[in-house]
Write a structure and sequence with these properties.
Helix content is 12%, strand content 54%. By secondary structure, the protein is mainly β. It has one domain: Sandwich (Immunoglobulin-like).
């Protein structure tokens, strides 16, 4: 049996590696988890999905990315059998609640005017602008790029 002994420095190193590889971002009591985008060949836009939680009431008021000309905050409106995409000015982040931005049918971000197609298995940087306790905080997120679904490629 091999016995592995890690010094404090080695443990700290591996903790940093684990944090760097996680798809989470933290700032000012705000946590962003599971950020991802779908790579769709031939499109100059892509949606970004994630969960956001805040320990105090906050509001997502904007987003940007060097990978696109603009980032829009969107939701879907459902009326009978019709759906319509709507741009929104902000997304409320109630204290202690995890806001689900993981569905095209609810809140999500849209990267518009991509400077280059998203590459499978890479990441795309997105900066979230959040207003909390009278100040604005920027949170940098790396959204994992996932491959397009086969149905979307047809």
């Amino acid at each position: 049996m091999i016995k592995l002994h890690l010094s404090g420095l080695h443990k700290f190193f591996w903790l940093l590696v684990a944090l760097a590889l996680s798809a989470s971002a933290y700032a000012d009591d705000i946590q962003v988890e599971g950020a991802w985008a779908r790579a769709v060949p031939g499109r100059d836009s892509a949606n970004v999905f994630m969960f956001i939680a805040s320990k105090q009431d906050a509001t997502l008021v904007g987003a940007s990315s060097p990978a696109s000309k603009a980032v829009e905050m969107r939701t879907m409106e459902h009326k009978g059998s019709m759906m319509r995409t709507l741009s929104v000015e902000s997304v409320k982040l109630p204290a202690g609640k995890r806001v689900d931005m993981t569905s095209i049918h609810g809140y999500h971000l849209a990267l518009t005017g991509l400077s280059a197609p998203l590459k499978n298995e890479g990441t795309v940087p997105v900066t979230l602008e959040i207003e909390t306790a009278g100040k604005r905080v920027n949170i940098d997120v790396q959204a994992e790029i996932r491959p397009a679904k086969k149905a979307m490629q047809q």
